[in-house]
Amino acid sequence: MSDLATPADFEIIDIQENFIVVNKAAGINFHDENELGQGLFNLVCQQFNQADTDKLFPVHRLDKMTSGLIIFARNLASAQQFQQLFSQHDIEKYYLAISDKKPKKKQGLIKGDMEKSRRGSWKLVRSQNNPAISQFLSYPLSGGKRLYLIKPHSGKTHQIRVALSSIGAPILGDERYYGKSPLKANNEDRGYLHAYALSFALNDHNYHYILPPNSGKHYLAAITIKQLESLQTPWLLNWPKV
Length: 242
Known about the structure:
By secondary structure, this protein is α+β, with helices and mostly antiparallel strands. The protein has helices spanning about 40-50, 75-85, 160-165, 180-185, 220-230; strands at about 10-15, 20-25, 55-60, 65-75, 90-100, 110, 115, 120-125, 130-140, 145-150, 195-200, 205-210.
């Protein structure tokens, strides 16, 4: 996928009075990248403002490799509401990932402090002072791959990528955390992390969004699509205890 973002690299999924929901493509940075072109936020603002004069406010972000659901507030008051919801972990987020490595465990809780490592990477450590917390379930796919459904309870940088790497299941296509085989990561058609679902309440109304991935040969494989049929209400699944 090209690093140059275009309006085709996102889709507006829903427009509400106080926010919009966008499907971000994989490989697009949230902010502008100098000579590489505009990032997601400015592109969405430009398209949305062609038909609407409201100013958009970013309330959370996704890594460049990550596709899927992302929210933009349509006014300052709503942006502040969303910031409070995110800071208090009152928005449930669910992600899909695929790995071809055998994990240390097939479901459970990944919890620990995150420390800076080399060259902009992070690592999970055993201390619990301000831990990153992620619940996960996993399901077998073909060819030794597994599909992971992850529910983060914190919003640390690279949290899910580091969490899965820490259990021996780095995400396919993740050039930073896949390990000592960057060529394997580079050979994939995308990074296999997708923001799959959101569930939250705003102004006494409940919102649920779910969006299967629309790119990536492993996501679009028949066995993955079949597995996702049982994961259409992730907030109702039997999650490991936190």
